[in-house]
Amino acid sequence: GGRHINDRARNEILEEVIAFANTYGGTLVLGIKETLDKPARTQMIKPIPNCTELAERLKLQCRDCIEPQIPIIEIVGVPIQKKVGAGVIVIQLPQSRAGPHRHTITKECYKRHADRTEKMTMREIQDLTLHLERGLSAIEAKFATRAEKFSEAIEGFFIPPQAGIGIRLTLVP
Fold it and tell me: What is this structure's pTM?
């Protein structure tokens, strides 16, 4: 009836979300029937009842059952049958820099491999942790270098003590 998410469905959806966050990010669309081909292809839309309400519940499940929390995730219900509110749910997320993420119930980390979601080995978890740490360290080092160059550049200007200076900083994740 679309009023709740059973445990099995919740776990399978969260495994996919975690795998996308731990790998390259991507878009998941719930409410699409697939063929039995390998790899599966889209066959038709199979609307999910109360999709907007269900999307809100999925947001809460992602918040409560994934650790650490995925910082950027968008979950939207898109009704295509206005009378009953049935439609598809679109989940979109980039690769996360806060990973590796794991499912709090199964205690497993997942990754995407081609068209499959797989459990990560301990070695893969360690490699991902080191990779993310190196990336964050590189960003911090570049920021420190640019901050130092900025300090040197600003010293070249003569600014009277009573004058103010304003700085605008824009950060993009």
Answer: 0.74
